[in-house]
Specification:
The structure holds two protein chains of two kinds.
Chain A lengths: L1 H14 L6 H41 L8 H41 L2 H8 L3 H5 L1 H33 L4 H9 L4 H27 L5 H30 L1
Helix pairs in contact in A: 2-3, 2-6, 3-6, 3-7, 3-8, 3-9, 6-7, 6-8, 8-9
Chain B lengths: L1 E10 L2 E11 L4 E6 L5 H9 L6 E6 L2 E2 L5 H8 L2 E4 L11 H12 L4 H14 L15 H13 L5 E5 L7 H18 L2 E6 L2 H7 L2 E6 L2 E6 L1 H4 L5 H7 L3 H9 L1
Classes of the chains: A mainly alpha, B alpha/beta.
């Protein structure tokens, strides 16, 4: 375990060496940003709307007491979406979608000697392959989380309109009631950390793949599993430290 | 010129290379031959720095490559071209982008100059007009030729080729061998080819190093190989009845 941790840290250090040519690396960063950001927007949107809607209906169901104003459901749905559902569930989904792609892409390059070809040319392979993915992850996951929060709260509104459990007016009052900017800051810190975890762990698993197609698949699986565990661990730590 | 001195390589308990020394001269096709598992590819990887030798040194024009760190190796690496066994073309890039990749990273040429160089390299390997194809759209022989075009794009002083004939039909194999030999002579490159293809050995082997069980067993030229009395080399080179018949005619 300590050997793996050491190799992971050394790989990260190599990844952030001075680039051979900034313009080539910048083009890679842009390409990865499109892949991570635009490529994941569809699945994140669908998940966020449904989770926002389901959360609102469930909270409304649990607050069936006449002593509690129904608008509180909007407030709880908002805070749950901002603090937990949007950053964490989005990150877990992205670990599956983006993380497995990163691990299998780099793993395939390793077993087909494409990484060797980069090294022979004098290219810092970890820098060229991994740093653009980490930068893309750390910049695009927060944007996806912002989109997810917006769509999650919108999903709650749609659920109110469709189910009639709470009136849309009550929901909006709840959503606007007692908003604290700290919750958004916590969500963004989580998103940045989760973006780093997904890209770096999956890239590490891919970079040290050896063998063939079977091992590439195993690297992708390991990358996703380790990323998910580390996301949940980081979620707990950040929540404890910031709230 | 490349000189290797006392190269040893171990993987755990497995002693793969045992004290191999040789000199590879420029303008010559230097072949490393041997049976499967004899250490040919490991030796090649030790020379180019993909593996670090457990013991021994590699010199590129009298510069000790083994003792250099990553940054110090970059100038030598940019003067190395390598063709891999499976070509190792970048899947996500077109043929043209593959060839221009080292030019983009290590030169300050304009886009037009880089494109001109890529077109020249493609013409040199008889693939003019294939610029926009992706590696998945190429045949095995075409991939090898694109690999060669990429390897020569930076006008290398040293060319390393790992199993250039694997997976190719005999006619295409000969074309690839001839291309490597022409480029070596034309640009006075120090070429090192790992192969177990006997057509290559007899066709382009200016200087041959035969490995057996991780040791240098024999060294000479393709003209000398037919007259050697080295048993292991004879067993390897003239294993087939066809080659035995050819030897008797020599």
């Amino acid at each position: 375990m300590f050997e793996s941790l050491g190799r992971y840290i050394l790989l990260l250090r190599l990844s952030f060496r001075k680039p051979e040519k900034f313009s080539v690396y910048w083009a890679e960063v842009m390409r990865e940003m499109v892949s991570v950001g635009i490529g994941s927007l569809g699945i994140i949107s669908i998940i966020s709307i449904f989770i926002g809607a389901a959360t609102t209906i469930q909270v409304a169901f649990q607050l069936s007491s006449p002593l509690v104003p129904l608008s509180i459901a909007g407030k709880i749905a908002r805070d749950s979406t901002i603090l937990e559902f949007s950053p964490t569930i989005s990150a877990l989904v992205l670990a599956g979608r983006v993380g497995s792609s990163i691990a299998s892409q780099i793993g395939t390059m390793r077993v087909t000697e494409q990484i060797d070809a980069l090294e022979i040319m004098g290219v810092n392979a970890p820098g060229y392959l991994i740093s653009p993915k980490i930068i893309a992850g750390m910049s695009m996951v927060p944007l996806l989380v912002i989109a997810s929060i917006t769509l999650g709260i919108t999903g709650g509104y749609i659920a109110c309109v469709a189910s009639g459990d709470i009136t849309p007016a009550d929901y909006i009052v709840g959503v606007r009631d007692g908003f604290d900017g700290l919750t958004v800051r916590v969500a963004l810190v989580k998103a940045i950390v989760f973006g780093f975890i997904i890209a770096s762990i999956c890239a590490y698993q891919g970079f040290y793949t050896s063998g063939g197609a079977l091992e590439v698949g195993q690297s992708a699986t390991k990358g996703v599993v380790f990323s998910c565990v580390m996301i949940l661990f980081a979620d707990l730590v950040i929540t404890r430290l910031m709230l | 010129m490349i000189e290797i001195k006392d190269i040893n390589k171990t993987f755990g308990e497995n002693h793969v290379l045992k004290g191999i020394s040789s000199v590879f001269h420029e303008g010559k096709n230097n072949l490393i031959i041997g049976g499967s598992g004899s250490g040919k590819t490991t030796l090649l990887k030790c020379i180019v720095g993909l593996h670090e030798p457990s013991k021994g040194e590699v010199f590129f024009d009298n510069e000790n490559f083994t003792q250099m760190d990553f940054e110090q190796r970059v100038p030598i690496r940019t003067s190395i071209g390598m063709l891999f066994q499976n070509s190792a073309l970048f899947d996500s890039m077109t043929v043209e982008e593959n060839i221009m990749f080292p030019l983009n990273l290590f030169t300050n040429r304009s886009k037009a100059e880089k494109l001109e160089r890529a077109n020249f390299c493609l013409e040199r390997v008889n693939l003019a007009g294939k610029n926009k194809l992706y590696p998945a759209e190429l045949s095995g022989g075409m991939k090898k030729r694109v690999g060669i075009a990429r390897a020569i794009s930076m006008q290398p002083k040293y060319l390393f080729v790992d199993e250039p004939n694997s997976g190719l039909d005999p006619k295409t194999s000969i074309l690839i061998d001839e291309l490597i030999a022409e480029l070596t002579l034309e640009y006075s490159i120090t070429t090192v080819v790992v192969t177990h293809d006997m057509n290559s050995v007899m066709g382009i082997g200016d200087h041959i190093v035969f490995l057996h069980q991780g040791q240098k067993w024999w060294e000479g030229s393709n003209k000398e190989i037919a007259h050697t009395d080295n048993k292991e080399l004879n067993d390897f080179v003239f294993a087939s009845k066809f080659m035995q018949a050819a030897k008797e005619k020599l």
